[in-house]
Amino acid sequence: MPQLNPAPWFTILFFSWLIFLIVLPRKVLSHTFPNETTSRSAHTPKTEPWAWPWY
Amino acid sequence: MVLSFFDQFMSPSYLGIPLMALALILPWTLYPKPTSQWISNRVLTLQGWFINRFTQQLMLPLGRKGHKWALLLTSLMVFLITLNMLGLLPYTFTPTTQLSLNMGFAVPLWLATVLIGMRNQPTIALGHLLPEGTPTPLIPVLIIIETISLFIRPIALGVRLTANLTAGHLLIQLIATAAFVLAPLMPTVALLTATLLLLLTLLEVAVAMIQAYVFVLLLSLYLQENV
């Protein structure tokens, strides 16, 4: 079986880990996930007017 | 030079460039850099959704201490599933059929989980070697069995992925050759063989995804025991 040929074993190991450590986390981390958007309510809420000072 | 069916798994070079290098570098061009737009295009949205849901799902059984592994395990999943799926295209080279690559990932990551367990909670880590409720006379035998099963884990992890993908690719090649050879001789049988080939290809798509998932899931389970 050609997979058992020991010649490129270390090269493959080294190269695959190199790609796995350098390329992939950058690509995975660059995805950001914003908070879910809330839908606007159909009517604006009735605000209570405040015309007098606090005390 | 007589071609055998195993020649598809050799690590060949084309124009002096080893195909392994191309097969390991080029797939990441399929993952574009996310933009700062709130709603991005379909490809980015799909990839982002997959990464998000997968990480969420995988981190559920792990405690807070296991969340440090989120990036590593998600990157590993993306790595394996991309390589597996792209290998199903005709004439592509699948790096995950190489035992060297799979063992190269399985052994260090498994060893990392074991060492973390031994360092942070050695009693609990060693306690996993004896299942609860074992009858007293069986204890020595069971500890030996559990130790053997612990050390078989990385080998099983690597060989499982290799064997599944190698067997799948071999079967596809065999049945395709059969359909091709039978076509002038017995067209009906060749048509049935071609249908079998189609079903097998669908199976291999499923196997590609499932084997990548199983690899990462088992690693997360080993981590769960030890973190």
UniProtKB/TrEMBL annotation, chain A:
Membrane-protein topology: Single-pass membrane protein
Transmembrane segments: 6-24
GO BP field: proton motive force-driven ATP synthesis
Biased composition (Polar residues): 35-44
Entry keywords, A to Z: ATP synthesis, CF(0), Hydrogen ion transport, Ion transport, Membrane, Mitochondrion, Transmembrane, Transmembrane helix, Transport
Region feature Disordered, mapped onto this chain: 35-55
Keyword set includes Kinase: no
GO cellular component: mitochondrial membrane; proton-transporting ATP synthase complex
MF term (GO), any: proton transmembrane transporter activity
Pfam family, one: ATP-synt_8
Protein localization: Mitochondrion membrane
InterPro entries in alphabetical order: ATP8_metazoa, ATPase_protein_8
Family label: Belongs to the ATPase protein 8 family.
SUBUNIT field: Component of the ATP synthase complex composed at least of ATP5F1A/subunit alpha, ATP5F1B/subunit beta, ATP5MC1/subunit c (homooctomer), MT-ATP6/subunit a, MT-ATP8/subunit 8, ATP5ME/subunit e, ATP5MF/subunit f, ATP5MG/subunit g, ATP5MK/subunit k, ATP5MJ/subunit j, ATP5F1C/subunit gamma, ATP5F1D/subunit delta, ATP5F1E/subunit epsilon, ATP5PF/subunit F6, ATP5PB/subunit b, ATP5PD/subunit d, ATP5PO/subunit OSCP.
Protein role: Subunit 8, of the mitochondrial membrane ATP synthase complex (F(1)F(0) ATP synthase or Complex V) that produces ATP from ADP in the presence of a proton gradient across the membrane which is generated by electron transport complexes of the respiratory chain. ATP synthase complex consist of a soluble F(1) head domain - the catalytic core - and a membrane F(1) domain - the membrane proton channel. These two domains are linked by a central stalk rotating inside the F(1) region and a stationary peripheral stalk.
Entry protein name: ATP synthase complex subunit 8
Taxonomic source organism: Xyrichtys novacula (Pearly razorfish)
From TrEMBL, chain B:
PROSITE patterns found in the cross-reference section: ATPASE_A
Keyword Transmembrane part of the UniProt annotation: yes
Membrane spanning residue stretches: 12-31, 69-89, 101-118, 138-159, 171-199, 205-223
Subcellular localization(s) per the UniProt record: Mitochondrion inner membrane
Signal peptide as annotated in the record: none
One annotated GO molecular function: proton-transporting ATP synthase activity, rotational mechanism
Keywords (A to Z) from UniProt: ATP synthesis, CF(0), Hydrogen ion transport, Ion transport, Membrane, Mitochondrion, Mitochondrion inner membrane, Transmembrane, Transmembrane helix, Transport
Membrane topology listed for this record: Multi-pass membrane protein
Mitochondrion listed as a keyword: yes
A GO term from the CC aspect: mitochondrial inner membrane
Catalytic activity: H(+)(in) = H(+)(out)
InterPro entries (UniProt xref): ATP_synth_F0_asu, ATP_synth_F0_asu_AS, ATP_synth_F0_asu_bact/mt, F0_ATP_A_sf
Alphabetical list of Pfam families matching this protein: ATP-synt_A (PF00119)
Taxonomy, superkingdom: Eukaryota
Assembly and oligomerization: Component of the ATP synthase complex composed at least of ATP5F1A/subunit alpha, ATP5F1B/subunit beta, ATP5MC1/subunit c (homooctomer), MT-ATP6/subunit a, MT-ATP8/subunit 8, ATP5ME/subunit e, ATP5MF/subunit f, ATP5MG/subunit g, ATP5MK/subunit k, ATP5MJ/subunit j, ATP5F1C/subunit gamma, ATP5F1D/subunit delta, ATP5F1E/subunit epsilon, ATP5PF/subunit F6, ATP5PB/subunit b, ATP5PD/subunit d, ATP5PO/subunit OSCP.
Family matches, as PANTHER family: ATP SYNTHASE SUBUNIT A
Family under the similarity heading: Belongs to the ATPase A chain family.
Protein name, per record: ATP synthase subunit a
Lineage of source species: Eukaryota, Metazoa, Chordata, Craniata, Vertebrata
